[in-house]
Amino acid sequence: MANEALKVLPLGGLGEVGKNMMVLETEQDIVVIDAGVLFPEDDMPGIDIVIPNIDYLVENLDRVRAILVTHGHEDHIGALPHIMEALPVPIYAPGMAMALIRNKLRERRVLREADLNIVKSGEVFKFGTTFEAEWFDVCHSIPDAMGIALRTPLGTVIHTGDFRLDNDPTIGEPTDFGRMAEIAADGVFLLMADSTYAENEGYSGSDREVAQTLHDIIGNAEGRVLVASFASQIARIQMVADAAEAHGRRLAIVGRSMVNNLKISRDLGHLKIKDETLISARDALGLPDHRVIYMNTGAQGEPQSALARMATGTHNDVDIREDDTVIISATPIPGNETSVSNLINNLVEQGAHVVTHNTRNVHVHGHAAREELRVIHNLLQPRHFVPIHGEYRMLRAHVDLAIEHGVHQDDAFLLQDGDVLRLTEDTAEVVEKIPAGHVFIHGHGVWDERGNVIVERRLLARDGFVTVILGRDSNGKVVGRPKIVSSGFVHFLEADTLFKDAIDELTAVLDQESGKSLQWNEVEATVKKTVARFFSQRTRRRPTIIPVAFDV
Questions:
Q1: Is 73 among the residues known to form the active site?
Q2: Rounded Cα distance, 227 and 294, in Å
Q3: CA-to-CA distance for 218 and 158, rounded, in angstroms?
Q4: Which of 248, 280, 423, 523 has its CA 20 to 30 A from that of 339?
Q5: Residue 283 to residue 275: CA distance in whole angstroms
């Protein structure tokens, strides 16, 4: 054991909310925990999703034994269809997560090649010669959420996944303290624990409280009720269905992802909803308002979501009416606050009565707050600690809490993506940094941060672009006057005068150069420099300049 070392390499999820991917490595074997996406931020124009950089794993593919999944949220499984070709290793996941993974792989047409293995709580699997994994139940906002206990040559490593402490969840199992205590009986070498709400004092709360609030609001509503939530919030769908049945309403599920998750959850036995309770959104239009509930996606203000399109009058089947009650049963993900605020304003403008977590108890999050984290630290008493899943300030808050509860400050590591923590029986230190930045997905395009696409898009989004069109004779010389067109740069009422002056200046410069024998790339450089300088002086803006030649 003296020569054994365990490396901990986060490739995503540390320093950000999303894109979770943790790597554990010995000399012989590598296992990966989760492979999630990050949803694009304001400085990522046009991007669909962001996934982890897996270059390190590809370089060491011969030692990568498996990807171990904790639960079925997008920030833990969403990258799998995009990395399968480069990382064709077995995937082990709980039932609900595996059903969602199958759907994703089928859509990407890579399901046939996948080696998929469903795990159940308490099952133990061996990976290579140095890792043995056991999944255990945790309570989270999606069924079949689990933590993972990894036996390694240095001792037991516990990865909590996303969790909270709710001893009586409406769907799924409570966090299994008993099994965690049994696992910890021989000591926990390393704890990696969810930090998303490590700054928040108290407890996360129980879904039972939300169920009662939804029951009351729906019972008192005179018109239609629309409930927006995450598509993966299966317990919330059951609560709304129960309230619908109690108050003589029919339930219409709207939004492709929510419809898909409804089917999966009913097939798996997580949802128990009578067939006669459900109705299509189109058929619901024929019922009196007081007989209808819509449940839909869009709680984060996503522009193409069902609720956002309803609020702007662009949904095919449902629009917002006076006296509708809209319940937003979620809290904004960090970075989505503006989108959610705009959504609420649009709904209120249409005459809806909007209920959010700020006014009623219509949502509890799925992550442990500080009192719950204290329970876990006191139960497991780890030797080493690494906070996971969260922005830097969240990780910092969790490190401080861990130190308060017995972890030595030299054994609590605030890692960020790409840090390599090397642990032995006697030492623990960050020894290097590996590439672990963003990989951007847009349609079929895949780019990392070293590429030009995102840089150029940010420039275009900020100052627009200007195209300079030049005539070119058979000798490669510029002939005639250039023409300028632009997009996103200048108001059309100002453009004629500004562009005429720019063309005059550019023409004068090109005339001075006309006696020289210039290659076309030199002409392009002159055009870019001249036009950029002119617009910078006149507008204090720097659009992207694109010279275009046509032969005459």
A1: no
A2: 6
A3: 41
A4: 280
A5: 14
Q: Residue-wise pLDDT tens for the chain (552 aa)?
A: 557 899 999 999 999 988 999 999 999 999 999 999 987 776 676 777 889 999 999 999 999 999 999 999 999 999 999 999 999 999 999 999 999 999 999 998 999 889 999 999 999 999 999 999 999 999 999 999 999 999 999 999 999 999 999 888 888 899 999 999 999 999 999 999 999 999 999 998 888 999 999 999 999 999 999 999 988 889 999 999 999 999 999 999 998 889 999 999 999 999 999 999 999 989 999 999 999 999 998 888 777 788 888 888 888 888 888 889 999 998 887 667 888 888 899 899 988 999 998 889 999 888 999 999 999 999 999 999 999 999 999 999 999 999 999 999 999 999 999 999 999 999 999 999 998 888 888 777 787 767 667 777 777 778 888 999 998 887 778 888 899 999 888 888 889 999 999 999 999 988 887 767 678 888 889 999 999 999 999 998 889 899 998 887
Identify which of 300, 320, 363, 316 has the alpha carbon closest to the alpha carbon of residue 226.
320
Has 367 been annotated as catalytic? yes
Please give the model's pTM, rounded to 2 decimal places.
Answer: 0.85
What CA dihedral angle connects 229, 230, 235 and 237, to 10 degrees?
50
* Cα Rg, the chain, nearest whole Å: 28
Residue type, position 465, single letter: F
d(CA 320, CA 350): 6
Q: Residues 9, 52: contact at Cβ < 8 Å?
A: no
Widest CA span in the chain = 87
Of 3.40.50.10710, 3.30.1330.30, 1.20.120.450, 3.40.50.720, the CATH number of 207-355 is: 3.40.50.10710
Q: What is the DSSP string of 37-83?
A: -B---TTSTT--EEEE--HHHHHTGGGEEEEE-----HHHHTTHHHH
Which member of 365, 367, 377, 389 is catalytic? 367
* Catalytic residue selected from 194, 242, 324, 463: 194
CATH 3.65.10.10 fits 6-202+365-448, yes or no: no
Got the DSSP string for 180-219?
HHHHHTT--SEEEEE-TTTT--S----HHHHHHHHHHHHH
Strand order in the sheet with 292-296: 250-254, 292-296, 225-228, 325-328, 353-355
The CATH code for residues 464-551 is 3.10.20.580
